[in-house]
C-alpha cells in the first residue's frame, strides 16, 4: 500500500483514468473535485472548489502526494474563470500543500504552453513559452506551470514536476471524439483545412496516466526532475487528418476529402471571434468549436519530443496509437452512425 494521494480534478476525464491507474498500483486514493462523477468503495471523495483553501485542507490533511489535474474546459472563453481557477486556484493548492506538509505535487500542464498558431516540429521542453498565447486557456496554463515549477525550488514547498500531455484521447473523453462526431452529424466535417499534411501528437489517456505516476515515483529531494516540465506523448506523430479520418470511419462516418484554404478558414474564425467579442455586451454569441485556436490546431504541425521523459522518468508509451484508436472507437458505441456496420464500413466509404 502506498499513499495516501489526492487527485484534484479526479472526477474529470484524465483524473478518473489516473485514479484507476493509481488503484491498480495499490495507492490509497482521495479525489477532490467540484462534483462526483463515479463511485468506487476504495476512493474517498471531497467535493469543493480548489480556490477555497479550507475545502482543500480537508482533503489534503495527511496526504503525501497531490496530482493537480483540474482546469476549466479549454473550450470556455471565460477569462475570469481561467484566471481564478488556473492561476489563483493553483496558488491556493500550493499554499494548502505547504500547510498540510504534502511532499510531492505533480501538475498536469499542457504541451500547448509553447503553441502560438505556428508549426511545432519535435519540440523539446527548452522551447520558450508562447509569447502570444491564442486563448485564455493557454495563457493561464503557462502562468500555472510557471507558478508550480517555481514553488518547487522554495524550501517550505512541496517538490514539484509538470507533465505536459498533448491531445489526450480515450474512453470517456467528453471533448475530442464527441466534438468530432457532432461536427460530422451536422455535415461540418466535409473539408480538410489546408493541404492536410500537418503532423501532430495525439496521446492515449493510459500513456498520460503512466507519465504522471512515473513522475510522482521519481520525484524526491535531489532528483533531476524537480521543478521541471516533461512532454508526454504517444511518441507516434500522425497526420491530423488521417487521425480524424480513422476516428470518423471507425464510427461509420465519412472522412473529409475536399480541401479548403487555411487562410480563408482562419480569417473567417478570427472575424467570428471578434464579432462575438464586440457583440458580447448586447447578446451572448459563442463561436463554439470554430475558434482561431482550433482552426490553427487542425492545420499546423504540433508534435513534441518526449526524449526527456524517457531518459529521466523511464517513460515509454504502453498503448500504441493503432491499439489506442481501436480501443477508443470501441468505447463509443452510442456515437456510431445509425447505418454503422463493422463488416461493411470499409465498403461504404472507399
Ligand atoms: N484533454 C486534453 O487534450 C488535454 C488536457 N490537459 C490538461 O489535463 C487536465 C485534465 O483535463 P481533462 O481531464 O481533459 O478535463 P476535464 O474537464 O475532464 O477534468 C477537469 C476536472 O476538474 C474539475 N474542476 C474544474 N474546476 C475546478 C475547481 N475550481 N475546483 C475543483 N475541481 C475543478 C472539473 O469539474 P467540472 O467538469 O464540473 O468543471 C473536472 O472534473 C487539465 O489540467 C487540462 O488542462 C492537457 C493537455 C491536453
Ligand atoms: C477539425 C476539428 C477542429 C475537429 C475537432 C477536434 C478537436 C475538438 C480537437 C482536435 C485537437 C484537439 C486539442 C485540444 C482540444 C480538442 C481538439 C481541439 C486541446 C486544445 C485540449 C487542451 C490542451 O491542452 C491542448 C489540446 C490540443 C489538441
TrEMBL record:
Q: Report the EC code(s) recorded for this entry.
A: 1.1.1.170
Name of the top EC class for this enzyme: oxidoreductase
Descriptive protein name: Sterol-4-alpha-carboxylate 3-dehydrogenase, decarboxylating
Record domain 3-beta hydroxysteroid dehydrogenase/isomerase: where: 6-258
UniProt keywords (A-Z) are: Acetylation, Cholesterol biosynthesis, Cholesterol metabolism, Endoplasmic reticulum, Lipid biosynthesis, Lipid droplet, Lipid metabolism, Membrane, NAD, Oxidoreductase, Steroid biosynthesis, Steroid metabolism, Sterol biosynthesis, Sterol metabolism, Transmembrane, Transmembrane helix
Q: Which GO terms describe its biological process?
A: cholesterol biosynthetic process
Enumerate the GO terms in the molecular function aspect. Answer: 3-beta-hydroxysteroid dehydrogenase [NAD(P)+]/C4-decarboxylase activity
Task: Give the matching Pfam families.
Answer: 3Beta_HSD
Q: Where are the transmembrane segments?
A: 263-283
According to its record, how does it sit in the membrane? Single-pass membrane protein
| Domain of life assignment | Eukaryota
- A single cellular component GO annotation: lipid droplet
